[in-house]
Amino acid sequence: MSLHTLAAPARFTLEVKKSRFLAQAAPAETPEAALAWLRQVSDGDATHNCWAYRIGPAYRYSDDGEPGGTAGRPILAAIEGQALDGVIVVVTRWYGGINLGAGGLVRAYGGSAAECLRTAPRQALIAWVEARLACDFSLASNVHALMVAVGAEKLGESFDETGLRLHLRLPAPMFDRFALRLRDVSRGAAHLLRIETDIE
């Protein structure tokens, strides 16, 4: 299953037994960015501002005074259930005077978060790989043409007595194709070394 993040913030409102729930979701690249957005959208006049984020291996959640396990965990489950990453969701509740019980809270928090995320605009997360490439000067134009064909970005370039040295970044699914075409164009003379992978 491929991971996605949000292309833009999203909102969804729900009313359950006179309690109003506002789910707000946003993309976040770091836990610090997620917590900054939490501070920005939390309503100090509301009864609760419950939240969760998932950013790579990092995740956190808070019930913000609701009974343990009835708010933050269901919000996190909504994020993970939709294969999202780099996302924070805040569900703000204004109490309407009628207790919902643990099951009702789980359904309200988890359901509003899930619906907010379901309707939010998404974008695929791209796995990238970095590589170092060394080749003769005579291959420079062919190498640059191959880079364009596979969506590679040049992060650095240098020259020495043996030729051209490049530091590249390209989509991970394109790495093997790039390596194969580079080998064909250079008749095995160019050297490509994969050095790092990340997700953007």
UniProtKB/TrEMBL annotation:
**Per its UniProt record, what PANTHER family does this chain match?**
IMPACT FAMILY MEMBER YIGZ (PTHR16301:SF20), IMPACT-RELATED (PTHR16301)
Q: Where is the Impact N-terminal domain?
A: 17-117
Please name the source species.
Arenimonas oryziterrae DSM 21050 = YC6267
- InterPro entries named among the record's database cross-references: EFG_III/V, Impact, Impact_N, Impact_N_sf, Ribosomal_Su5_D2-typ_SF, UPF0029_Impact_CS
Q: Which GO terms describe its cellular component?
A: cytoplasm
What are the BP-aspect GO terms?
regulation of translational initiation
Q: What is this protein called?
A: Impact N-terminal domain-containing protein
Q: Name one Pfam family in it.
A: Impact_N
Q: Which SUPFAM superfamilies match?
A: EF-G C-terminal domain-like, Ribosomal protein S5 domain 2-like
Which one of the record's GO molecular function terms can you name? anion binding
Give the stretches traversing the membrane. none
Q: Which family does the entry's similarity section mention?
A: Belongs to the IMPACT family.
